[in-house]
TrEMBL record:
<dbReference type="InterPro" id="IPR019004">
    <property type="entry name" value="YqeY/Aim41"/>
</dbReference>
<dbReference type="GO" id="GO:0005739">
    <property type="term" value="C:mitochondrion"/>
</dbReference>
<protein>
    <recommendedName>
        <fullName>Altered inheritance of mitochondria protein 41</fullName>
    </recommendedName>
</protein>
<dbReference type="Pfam" id="PF09424">
    <property type="entry name" value="YqeY"/>
</dbReference>
<dbReference type="GO" id="GO:0016884">
    <property type="term" value="F:carbon-nitrogen ligase activity, with glutamine as amido-N-donor"/>
</dbReference>
<comment type="similarity">
    <text>Belongs to the AIM41 family.</text>
</comment>
<keyword id="KW-0496">Mitochondrion</keyword>
<dbReference type="InterPro" id="IPR003789">
    <property type="entry name" value="Asn/Gln_tRNA_amidoTrase-B-like"/>
</dbReference>
<dbReference type="InterPro" id="IPR042184">
    <property type="entry name" value="YqeY/Aim41_N"/>
</dbReference>
Length: 190
């Protein structure tokens, strides 16, 4: 809504025209899920900046930039599982670059890339992965929920529900290959 009003001047000159803009804000509050590793990365970035650890600082900045870019592309990285995949993918890319630098006899740059890859892998391995009985229990919950809703129970539906941040795993990381093997062992299609 836009309103226009005139304000008279004290010296009798022409009145000034002012615009007043009113904005209506949504009363709906949307909360983002708190991702523990994301909080940890931001905290470690501050620590790395204070201690002037440039390799760690640059590595964390790159990861955070990738997370922000993914949000802009409507593919938000909003779970620890997605952060873990991003970290492992980035570490793999760093190792490939280090290998190419070694072939070019650029050992100084190779060492930097390898140290960044080791930092990324360390963060990725800190993320707890749901396995075994906990994963089987979550799959059983999803199967029961899908059956009670009358939905078709198949591997793609199960995996989609496992990955949801509001699902039984709560967005925690899990081994996809193990989950698929558990689903196949259940013989749902038969």
């Amino acid at each position: 809504m836009l309103r226009l009003f005139l304000e008279p001047t004290s010296r009798g000159g022409r009145p000034k025209l002012y615009r007043m803009a009113m904005r209506s804000y949504s009363s709906e509050v949307t909360e983002k899920a708190v991702v523990p590793m994301l909080l940890r990365l931001r905290s470690d970035l501050k620590t790395a900046m204070k201690t002037k650890d440039t390799v760690r600082r640059d590595t964390i900045k790159e990861v955070l930039a990738n997370i922000i870019n993914a949000e802009k592309k409507n593919q938000p990285i909003d779970t620890d599982e997605k952060i873990r995949k991003l970290l492992l993918k980035s570490a793999s890319a760093q190792k490939d670059v280090a290998q190419q630098l070694e072939q070019q006899n650029r050992n100084d740059l190779r060492d930097k890339e390898l140290s960044q890859a080791s930092i990324l892998e360390a963060y990725a391995h800190e993320i707890k992965i749901v396995e075994g009985d906990d994963l089987k229990h979550a799959i059983d919950q999803i199967v029961n929920a899908l059956k009670s809703n009358g939905d078709h129970v198949n591997t793609s539906n199960l995996m989609k529900n496992l990955r949801q941040s509001n699902g039984p795993l709560g967005g925690k990381a899990f081994d996809s290959a193990q989950a698929i093997a558990l689903v196949k062992d259940m013989n749902l299609g038969k």
